[in-house]
Write a structure and sequence with these properties.
Radius of gyration: 26 Å
Strand order of the largest sheet: 4-3-5
Structural class: mainly alpha
Helix content: 55-70%
């Protein structure tokens, strides 16, 4: 299993947990409720085991691939560089320390996220069932109690049950979404560190940040600029004061070597001039770059909104919801009678879940 498969595995297990919660029966019985909680916690524990098996290996692989890539890049520019086997690379302090730090940070983040999700799952199930029992006792629930409890829990659990991280502005991130963020970020960080350490070890202390047609404001202020790894090259900011990529989760920016021996004074000065008047936090992108990024983000937002809607429909409708996100998208985008029928069923099911 690679890191992309791990991300997919997290998403798959989360969906399986949602399905288990939605299909649970007789949850007013404490034994059944506890059995459900135990099953959910066990699934989350398995995620932890799988992450521990996959991530250290994948981060090491990304780091070593970056070192090897940087080695070839330098050799192509006639820079003297040691060509080492993987085992030899990791014997060197600069590489071993960097990799250990990235792995440690990644595993700490994932373990904390899973631990938080387990607490969230247990609390959500317990609180929801307690509230529903009180409603039933007061005679506020009409019809099948079992069906009502199941749907009520499925809906609440989908909204709150697997929270693994809460942002500074109060946004709750679900475990699979947060895990995807951590995995993507740490893989890019491992790659960047591998390249940078290889350059520095070979005596090349200037690096250049990649450029892309579509970049966010944060990335745009650094894209295409040259910086000094150790801060000792006059005219270029230090990587200790100006951050290296990744600049945010899912950042695509990379680094490459900037070998001054092959640059003219005019070229070097042009790179230095890019930093003149630099003020961190300023959006330096062109209008074309802003539009390209906005278009890219709109596509992502639409896909994410459809996924969230599908999860809400499935939590409330259960087996009556479309079987896959693909089927849901086709029905929704067609906007025909099938979509109207699905919306009607969803609204009706939601009304049944509300207790006056």
């Amino acid at each position: 299993m690679n890191h992309n498969q791990l991300i997919e595995y997290f998403a798959q297990v989360i969906q399986e947990i949602f399905a288990r919660v939605g299909n649970a029966n007789n949850l007013t019985d404490d034994k059944n409720a506890q059995k459900l909680i135990s099953a959910v916690l066990k699934s989350l524990d398995i995620l932890g085991v799988k992450a521990n098996e996959v991530m250290p290996h994948e981060l090491e692989k990304a780091y070593l691939e970056a070192v090897n890539g940087a080695t070839k890049e330098l050799a192509a520019q006639n820079v003297k560089v040691d060509k080492l086997e993987s085992t030899e690379i990791l014997k060197r302090k600069i590489h071993l320390a960097a990799l250990k730090r990235v792995v440690s940070d990644a595993m700490t983040d994932l373990k904390t996220a899973i631990r938080t999700a387990k607490k969230s799952a247990k609390t959500t199930i317990a609180k929801t069932l307690s509230a529903v029992k009180k409603e039933i006792a007061k005679g506020l629930v009409m019809g099948s109690h079992n069906k009502y409890v199941s749907k009520r829990l499925a809906k609440t659990f989908q909204e709150q049950g697997l929270t693994s991280f809460v942002t500074s502005d109060g946004k709750k991130l679900r475990l699979d979404k947060y895990a995807k963020t951590v995995v993507s970020y740490k893989m890019r960080e491992a790659s960047t560190q591998g390249s940078v350490n290889c350059y520095q070890e070979s005596g090349v202390t200037l690096i250049k940040i990649s450029e892309h047609g579509a970049s966010c404001a944060k990335c745009g202020q650094y894209a295409g600029k040259v910086m000094s790894i150790d801060g000792e090259y006059k005219g270029f900011p230090s990587a200790k004061s100006v951050p290296l990529p990744p600049y945010h989760p899912h950042c695509r920016h990379t680094v490459s070597s900037y070998v001054v021996e092959y640059k003219s004074d005019k070229e070097i000065q042009a790179e230095k001039d890019k930093w003149k008047g630099f003020k961190e936090g300023t959006d330096t992108r062109t209008e074309a770059q802003k539009k390209a990024y906005a278009k890219e983000q709109e596509i992502r937002r639409k896909a994410h909104a459809e996924l969230k809607a599908y999860e809400r429909y499935r939590a409330v409708l259960g087996k009556d919801a479309p079987k896959t996100i693909g089927a849901f998208r086709r029905i929704k985008r067609s906007g025909g009678k099938s979509w109207q029928k699905l919306q009607l069923a969803y609204r009706q099911a939601n009304r049944e879940l509300k207790v006056e």
